[in-house]
Amino acid sequence: MDHDEQTDDWPAQVAVRREKRQRLLDEGREAYPVTVARTHTLAQVRSTWEHLEQGEETQDVVGVAGRVMFVRNTGKLCFATLQEGIGTRLQVMLSLAEVGEEQLEDWKRTVDLGDHVLVEGRVISSRRGELSVMATRWEMASKALRPLPVLHKDLSEESRVRQRYADLIVRQEARDMVRTRSEITRAVRRTLEDGGFLEIETPVLQRIHGGAAARPFRTHFNAYDQEMTLRIALELNLKKAVVGGVDRVFEMGRIFRNEGADSTHSPEFTMLEVYEAYGDQHTMADLMRTMFLAAADAVGSRQVETPAGVVDLDGEWRWLPVYEGVSTAVGEEVTPLTPVERLRELAEAHDVELDPAWGAEKVVLELLSELVEPTLLQPTFLCDYPPSAQPLARPHRSEPGLIEAWDLIIAGVERGTAFSELVDPVVQREVLTRQSELAAGGDPDAMQLDEDFLRALEYGAPPMGGLGLGIDRLIMLFTGVGIRETILFPHLRAEAR
């Protein structure tokens, strides 16, 4: 916990809690028992006895357990609120008449906020109509040695992310995010499975990194004395599976890119990749839209509020060619034949910074990124890219000098990508050879030449479509938060001591 999240007496509170733990042990009692006599979850009590009228009592005895989130000790009657799981809460009451003086005083001097306790007693509705358990006995289930974050004071974002366990305890929004993420990934999987796609798992450790333009993390495999990388994409192994006859295949897994971190990028994130024999960029677009709608239906509405405006997922998902979008943004026609000198003049006129080493295609992509993508609120497939944008995509069937690939932009952010996949092993070798030459020349993002992948293509890969979808960015769209909030335990800088 950051210092600014601690009260001035925080070390003293820890010391007092440790003393209570030791006293329990010295008295021959359990501070951390293996199990307790829980008969019902808090949720089960709520659902089973929700019908009780104000002040109504039963003789039904239950054993409930949870974390103490609120406590009020007043003379002969103590109140506490227990919490479990996704945030379900239930009141417990300890009265002198029911538990006796010894147990009541023990509760007052032993129990702190954050402790897990078992309370056994009758289910009642209090005089104020609050469903409760009137205790006949209690015991410690787990003694908390650190105070909870102050409930009335928001944790800083840094503290929330760094100590997510504390965030989950005190903030319902954090617990909701875990459930939302699970519901979205389940909806995506269900869509694919209903479409006949098989989920497989491919290696995280790879000798040759490929499938994307990204900088890898490097490691060493001691048993084989081999230099290895963590995968930067799922693509190449999934395509090998299609070659082998797994015609519809997907994987949802962690990938790793040793690059910058910001509100939309994390070095470790969850990627979905899907490949379909005899598919193309159009079948992949249909599938992408279906997955987004399934996710929307799982967690809320197809009209999504974003800082840029309301996204209507039920509306048109239009196709916008890259050069058409750039032409509109700069106010004159731009084509694959536009000289790089003119492109640089247009960039300067629109305050777009460029690297002097970039060629015409890279300059067009930068103009696209800076001037076009941020303006696209409604779902838009940016399509007809220059070839350097995606080295693994097929040349366009009707537009020479372009490739069949698209990026899906929603609310100004890239959400996914897809191609009609390049399956000609001769052309693919030429493309990967150029990439490997860039890598040898010092480009850390360039792909290496993967002979095993090329060998697989030489056995004959069917025409296929493939897509990639960042699951974290899908969740960001529906929750309106940054990537560090959607990932339960994201990577951070080392904690200052």
UniProtKB/TrEMBL annotation:
Segments forming domain Aminoacyl-transfer RNA synthetases class-II family profile: 179-490
Record-listed E.C. numbers: 6.1.1.6
Cofactor remark: Binds 3 Mg(2+) ions per subunit.
Keyword Cytoplasm attributed: yes
Enzyme class at the top of the EC tree: ligase
Binding-site positions, Mg(2+) 2: E414
UniProt-listed PROSITE patterns: AA_TRNA_LIGASE_II
Residues holding Mg(2+) 1: D407, E414
Keyword terms: Aminoacyl-tRNA synthetase, ATP-binding, Cytoplasm, Ligase, Magnesium, Metal-binding, Nucleotide-binding, Protein biosynthesis
Membrane spanning stretches: none
Cofactor list: Mg(2+)
Subcellular location: Cytoplasm
Catalytic activity from the UniProt record: tRNA(Lys) + L-lysine + ATP = L-lysyl-tRNA(Lys) + AMP + diphosphate
Molecular-function annotations in GO: lysine-tRNA ligase activity
Principal location class: cytoplasm
Recorded family membership: Belongs to the class-II aminoacyl-tRNA synthetase family.
Subunit structure: Homodimer.
HAMAP family reported for this sequence: Lys_tRNA_synth_class2 (MF_00252)
NCBIfam families linked to this entry: lysS_bact (TIGR00499), PRK00484.1 (NF001756)
Protein name per the record: Lysine--tRNA ligase
UniProt lineage: Bacteria, Bacillati, Actinomycetota, Actinomycetes, Propionibacteriales
